[in-house]
Amino acid sequence: MKKIIAKRVSILELFYDLIFVYAISRMTMMIHHLHSGALSPVIYGEFIIVVIMVLQLWLYQTVYINRFGTSRAIDTIGLLVSMFVAIYLANNINTEWRTTFHRYNLAMLLTIINLLFQYCYGSGTQLRRDRDVQGFVIVLGIELIFFITGLLLGYHYGIYLCVVGGLIGFLAPLGMYKMYQPSQVNFPHLVERLSLIIIITFGETLVNIAQYFNGAIYSPLPIIIFAGVAALFGVYTLLVERFLNHHQHTRGFVAMYTHIIMIISLLSITAGIIYLKNDQASRTFISLFIAGSLVVFYLCLWIYSCYNQRHLQFSNYDFVVMIGVLCLGVIGIFLQKNSNLGLMTAFASANIIEFGLMEWRLHHPLKQH
What we know:
The chain is an all-alpha fold. The protein is about 75% helix and about 0% strand.
């Protein structure tokens, strides 16, 4: 099979990512505030929907560049237009959907139109011959219809159509999985792009935990919080840089979908750490929220490990041990729920041990038969 030559991530792509630093910050703010000591399920559901809707646009743009981008004028203009509209999109992210309904969804609509134009005219291929392009155009076309109809109907009824349209744009490619060709995907480039959006999300975590770093430099709580976040980042980085086989032919669907969920879980962990300062917050809620988000992150990470090099695949024994450590961490978080230091010590310990287990596997690869 033809060897994959890694496509370089361009400076313009990194420039494009800058707006998502702001967008991720705005999305995190949606779940900063608690009501009656806990996060409202409705608010959290809205948060998940917004993350999915915003990041699926980032994904469609990234996938276009990954498969078809060659730094032509149409690629550059399309990326700049996406970035321009994304600023308006990010600026209208909040929990009061009624007040920003038209501005937010109009920005979504314009981004979808721009993506359709790029796939149809910038892919350098004929729509009738390329099944990948057909798949993306079909999904974006359906999404476009839902957003146009929703905007015409107005907030009262249109909001539901816009939400359904966004979810279709996110989930529909799964139902058309076989239309997409692995040979079109530059997997090293895709891994690098997905890693960058995760780094941005960890950056948001660091910005938010900075509020704990205002006492003595040797205070135990900020040290433990930083160690826990750093170890979690280390687990992700170790998997991506040392375990993954970057040069494989794959559609990349597992990578893309697990990263969206990992971002949701990371932002949830970030919010949970912020809640520790809220004296009115339910300690049971905080412990379950942080523990549950951590479990979701690791589940996605382990699913993502399906791309590991053959000799660095996790064995059943590895999974049993890693799951056991995670379960002990979750139990520790819950048992120490009334102590910020104790809760974060359990959080940090689980991540540090998970990192150590992966380091051990890295230096003790499976024997090849």
